[in-house]
Amino acid sequence: MKRTGIFIIMILVAAFLADFSPAEGRDGSPRGRFGPGSYAAPDLTEIPRLDLMPRQREDLTVLRETHLRDIRPMQNTLEDRSRELRRLWLETSPDWERIRIVQQEVRLLWDRIRENEQLYLREAFGILTPEQRAVAMDSEIVQRVRRGMGRGGPGGMGRGRGMMGR
């Protein structure tokens, strides 16, 4: 009985401590937040060690807002096509040709969003100094985009780095 009591207390302490674990990356960047989908542009103003000037912060914010506004129609279409694809798969006798067509549309939308994200990053890096670029490249926020996280990442589905992380 004493062992059972100690075991239960240990489980409760572990659950209590897990609830207060920090939700940030090694570089202090925010992680685990709710917000735009994984295909949204990374917010470089959230990188704590970047030491942005007020003008740079303003330019980066305007650039990101413009980018997000530009990709919003693609995101909405992607969500619609994803719902349609789910519905097609759940039919009792799926139309395989229609499923293939919708899957191609989803892939094309992902690719267009990804291209726009890369363009956004190129423009954002043009605003930064060479030292700030080096800090940004090392940040977890930019690393996720460069590795393809969000479209699968290591070990997930999509075009991430795959199981071996290469």
Describe this structure in words.
The chain is an all-alpha fold and 166 residues long. It has a domain at 72-148: Four Helix Bundle (Hemerythrin (Met), subunit A) (Up-down Bundle), CATH 1.20.120. It is built from five helices and no strands. It has helices at 2-19, 54-90, 96-127, 130-138, 140-147. The chain is flat. The termini are far apart. The model is unreliable at 23-37 and 149-166 (pLDDT under 50).
CATH architecture of the domain at 72-148: Up-down Bundle
Shape designation: flat
Instruction: Tell me the structural class.
Output: mainly alpha
Low-confidence stretches: 23-37, 149-166
In total, how many beta strands?
0
Mind telling me the C-alpha Rg? 21 Å
* Helix amount: 55-70%
Number of helical segments with 4 or more residues: 5
* Largest sheet properties: none
Q: H/E series, N to C?
A: HHHHH
Please indicate the percent range of residues in DSSP E strands (runs of 2 or more). under 5%
The name CATH uses for the topology of the domain at 72-148 is Four Helix Bundle (Hemerythrin (Met), subunit A)
Summarize the structure.
The chain is mostly helical. It has helices at 2-19, 54-90, 96-127, 130-138, 140-147. The protein has a domain at 72-148: Four Helix Bundle (Hemerythrin (Met), subunit A), CATH 1.20.120.
